[in-house]
Structures are given as structure tokens and as C-alpha cells.
Amino acid sequence: MTILILPTQLCNLNPGCLYCFEDENMRHSCDPLKLNMDAIRASLDKICSGPYGGSGIGLHGGEALVVGPTIIEELLELMMEYRDPNDKLSITTNGTLIDSEFIRLFKKYLIHVGVSVDGPPELNTLRGPNPYDEELTAKYNEDLWNTLKRMRREGISTGVMTVLHTENVGTPEKVNKMIEWIRDLRDIGITGGRLNAMGGYGHMVKYELTNKQLAYAWKTMFDATLERDYCWNPFREMIDNLMGFHVGSCTFGQCNYLATTTISILPDGTISNCDRTFADDLHVRADKNEICGRYRAMWAGDCAGCKYWSICGGGCPGNGIGGDWRRKTRFCDAIYETYEYIAKRIKGLMPNCYLCTENNNKDPFRVMNYNFTNKPSTYGSCRPKGKGC
Fold it and tell me: Do residues 345 and 351 make contact, with C-beta atoms less than 8 angstroms apart?
């Protein structure tokens, strides 16, 4: 379980990233939800009073740093009281507001910083204060690269959150440039992050990858990121899933779309879902977390007989076919092909190992049942690390 605290739903990038799924008015107008520290503390009490004894906690947004360093430090002090002692606190940010004061806070509280950036300057063209302004976008990219280098010089744990779309991995040539960029990141001390597929909305569908393009990009980057000290997802998670370890991430975690594995606490203390659900205007969380009928329906339909189903679960409900969260992800073919590719690589290195998906169809619900029935909390699924499937 991950808890995300949203101190604001506003973002400083305006007009902003072209594919953002947050409501336009919410990002650029007066914040409709006022920050209430007491209410956030009460919600943390409610969430963490279950069997977890703490959890991974991070700051998210909007753009969390919009609220300024004083409020951020107050939130970090609060988060320290509830965090799992084995986990770092984290923050996801677009990186444009990071200055000396925020760097001081990151160092003081040992924060892991995930910076949203979609590749080198020539490929990171859908993000920034105004992607339609080439000069402004070039300056944004230059400043962001300098910020990444500075944080690593300061010893701050840093990763990148990368969204894959046609403008950065839509062709083999672009994929090769992304791999060069990943190596450049390694040279400045950033060895991992996430490579998530963009789900297009409205007129932004034109930037969404086909399954063929996504599978090619993932498989090619998987090979490249197997080099020493690289730790990129979803590849590392896919390896763990295949080997029978803790099923991650939430993309494969069979979450209930009305009570997601990731919990968001809104500025006013409201306990809500993963921010991915906000695109469907789902801001209120169900009180009970239970097995969602989506998965039994998919096993009888969309995902019937799939050998990877128990470690995929049909993918993120937010990317359901036709925009329907009850259907399997529209990136199913790419996920299947990537799992297949990684499974063959594992078997090639360790031919006698037993993968979690072998003889999987005997009890296709065993992973899901474990995830959602082992000491369930009111607000999240309990999936201890190290428990095989």
C-alpha cells in the first residue's frame, strides 16, 4: 500500500503538459480544496491504524511544491510519524520549482525525489510550461537537466517518472535515443525510474502508442537496462512477478477501481483513490476494499485462459478498452508480449527455474485471493513482500 498526500491540486505549468489527465480548471484556477493539516493527520490515523504499522508515504499533486517549503516541511514532519521505517519518504514533482531550500529539505528528510521527465530535450516535447513554445520548452529542458545533476551532486536519491508516447518512443530511432538518455542519466548517478505507457484522452489519443510500438520499446529498453546497477520498471517488477515474489506494481495488482491499492489524501483530508481515477471524476473512495467483480468477469471474458493473468490482472483499470474500467487494459498485447519476452530470457539464463505462471490456470485466483484476504485493511490490500504466489 502507498499513501499519497496531495497538499494541492494545482500545478505551476500553464498551459501545461499536453497529455495531463487532471481537469484543466483544477490545475490552473483557485484550488477548490483548502489545505487542512488536522484533517490530513486524522486521515493518516484512520488509514494506518490497521495491520500495516506504517506505510510508504509520498507527496503528490497537482504539483506539491507549489505550496512552498514551509508547508512542505510541516508535511514532511507529519509524514515521518507514520512512515514505514524501512521506506524512504518520497515526492513526485515536475522539478521546475526545486531550489536551494527544497534541496535542503530533501537532504534533511532523506527524501526520494521522482522527477517527471519524458526523455532528452529533443524527445521531451509534450511536457513543460508551454509545449507549443519551442524556445520556452528548450529552456525548461535545460533547467531540468541542470536540476537533476545538482540533486545528484547533493547526494539526493533521485529517479525519473517517464511517460511513453509516440513523441519519445514512437519509432526505433527514438527508442535508441531514449536508451542513450538512460545511459546519460546513469552517468550523473540516476539508475532507475518508471517507463509507463501514456493513456490518451480526447484529442491526445494521437500520441498514444500502439501495442506493437509499446512492445518494441519495452523489449528493447529491457535489454538495455539489464546493464549493471540499472533498476527500471516495469521490468524489475515483471521479473519479480514471474519469479513468484510480491506482485507489483499497482498496474498489475488487481486493485479495486473504487478502492485502489494506492490511497490519496486530498488537501482537505478526504481519503480518495489513486489519482489516475480522477480522470473519471472518482474522488470519493469506497469504504470497503474487497475483491472487485472486474477480475472474475475478465477471467470469464477478456482474459480467459491467459497464463499471465494472475500476475497482470488485466492491467490498470484506468486504461480499460474503450475507456471502460471493467475491461482489460488496451495495452494487453504489449504487456503479454513483454512478459513472454522476459520469461524466455529468464528461462534462458536459468532453465531449471520454476516461473510463477507455469500451471497457472489450476487456481487462477490464488494471487488475487491472497492479495485481498490476508488481514484486509479498510483502506488497502495487504500484500507483504516476499510472499510467493
Answer: no
Q: Each residue of 89-135: pLDDT tens digit?
A: 999 999 999 999 999 999 999 999 999 999 999 999 999 999 999 99
Question: Which strand (E) or helix (H) includes residue 378?
Answer: none
Name the packing angle between helices 69-82 and 37-48 (round to 10°): 20
DSSP string, 202-224: GGGGGGPPPHHHHHHHHHHHHHH
Q: Please say whether the beta carbons of 276 and 329 come within 8 A.
A: no
Pairing between β-strand 158-164 and β-strand 112-116 as defined by DSSP bridges = parallel
pTM as predicted: 0.89
Contact status, residue 290 vs residue 256, Cβ threshold 8 Å: yes
User: At 216, which amino acid appears?
Assistant: Y
Backbone angles phi, psi at 355, to 5 degrees: -85, 150
Nearest residue to 45 via CA among 291, 375, 384, 378: 378
**What burial class does residue 291 get, using C-beta atoms within 10 Å of its C-beta: 0-12 exposed, 13-18 middle, 19+ buried?**
middle
For residues 53 and 71, give the distance between their C-alpha atoms in angstroms, rounded to a whole number.
Answer: 25
Q: Which amino acid is at 266?
A: L
Phi/psi of residue 233, nearest 5 degrees: -110, 150
Beta-carbon count within 10 A of 15 CB: 15
- Cell numbers representing residue 173 in the block: 530511432
